[in-house]
Amino acid sequence: MARTWHRWLPAGAVVALIAGTVTLTSQAGAVDLPDKSPQDVLTMLAEHEVEAFSGTFETTSELGLPMPADLDLGPGGPDLDDAELPAPSGPDGAADAMAALELLTGDNTGRVFVGDDGARFQHIDGLDERNVVVTETDVWFYDSATNEGTHLVLPDPATLPEHDVPEYDGPLPTPEQLAAAAVAALEPSTEITVGQDESVAGRDAYTLTLVPRAEETLVDTVSIAVDGETGFPLGITVTARGQAEPAVHAAYTDIDFTAPDPGLFDFAPPAGATVEEEVLEVPTDLPAAPDHGHGRGMAPDHTKGMGPVTGGEVLGEGWGAVVVLPAGDAALAQQPMLDMLLEPVDGGRMLSTALLSVLLTDDGRVLAGAVTPEHLLDLAGQ
């Protein structure tokens, strides 16, 4: 497996795959690590060598979703009565929307295993599990509650077309230089400090805290627990402005930095399971990657206030960045499930949570960002 994939998977597994937060497992004041500067801790994150591990993490969410009073999100969500859901829209419809909302509300528990042979993620819901197993040859998605799965066969790397990769003729930066550049890039918009040491999953950790300076953002602070020995990210806490409790926190409750059993990645669905087989086809006439001028010793330019994204653009930068999708590209706006979550506003409909605002305008545009609803309305009117 690619080294880059290994290095960034730990944080992605905890933060992106299963969003949410958990009651803090840290013990402030019980740890006394050697003093380090923010740049030192960023360096540890950049150069950590953990490539194999297994662990259990718990999450809980206080995003302030405007949920209808009669909506049932299952064991992980609020204890509410059953609701009559809108008719499905598209191939998966409201069922997929409900599954996504379940992961964004209440408490969740997961396990992750990463090794040279692949990666496995498990979302535990009572006696049921949702599994994602990734290897170099295939990907499995399996839900024990429905006994259904999808098997995606990946193309043989030897059969993939070769493409020219721009050469880099500048000096290779050290982790310390990368950390210094990260601090320089963050400081204009962010206050960076190292807080009180803590214990996470039984390990001593530094607390790297980021405080945005942008007035329009909904984010108050972001704290990352960095393992004091390995530099591995053990947890993250995001607090929204105006909230006493964390809006998003994810942390390991136990972790083992030895390689997991390779048999964990040799997945086979149980007898009687319904499995959909898919083969990923990769076209042989892929276009060459665009040359942005940073293939030869030049760094990408992240200083612009506006940049392109697929099907849209980005307004602003840093904590105040807002994604804008033009009219006609917003299939999200056609989902009946959204009618249960959106509030009417001047010129459209708004979804407001503690950390995210989404505006669907009457002319079909979608604006989204970790900013105040007022900021989205201002941008939409420009």
Structural description of this entry:
It is a single chain. By secondary structure, the chain is an alpha+beta fold. It contains five helices and 20 strands. Strands 1, 2, 3, 4, 5, 6, 7, 8, 9, 10, 11, 12 and 13 form a 13-stranded mixed β-sheet that branches. Strands 14-15-16-20-19-18-17 form a seven-stranded antiparallel β-sheet, covered by helices on one side. Helix 2 (38-47) crosses helix 4. It is globular.
Task: Looking at this protein, list some descriptive labels.
single chain, 382 residues, alpha+beta, 13-stranded mixed sheet, seven-stranded antiparallel sheet, 15% helix, disordered N terminus
Short structural description:
With 382 residues, the chain is an alpha+beta fold. It contains 5 helices and 20 strands.
Segments where pLDDT lies below 50 for 5+ residues? 1-29, 67-98, 292-309
- How many strands, which pairing sense, and closed or not: the largest β-sheet? 13 strands, mixed
Summarize the helix and strand pattern as letters: HHEHEEEEEHEEEEEEEEEEEEEEH
Which band does the percent of strand residues land in?
Answer: 25-35%
Computed CA radius of gyration, to the nearest angstrom: 22 Å
Number of strands: 20
Question: How are the elements arranged and paired?
Answer:
Blueprint: H1 3-17, H2 38-47, E1 53-61, H3 93-103, E2 106-115, E3 118-125, E4 128-134, E5 138-143, E6 148-153, H4 175-186, E7 190-194, E8 198-200, E9 203-212, E10 219-227, E11 233-240, E12 248-256, E13 274-279, E14 306-309, E15 312-315, E16 322-325, E17 343-345, E18 348-352, E19 357-361, E20 366-369, H5 373-381
Parallel strand pairs: 6-13
Antiparallel strand pairs: 1-2, 1-12, 2-3, 3-4, 4-5, 5-6, 7-9, 8-9, 9-10, 10-11, 11-12, 14-15, 15-16, 16-20, 17-18, 18-19, 19-20
Helix pairs in contact: 2-4
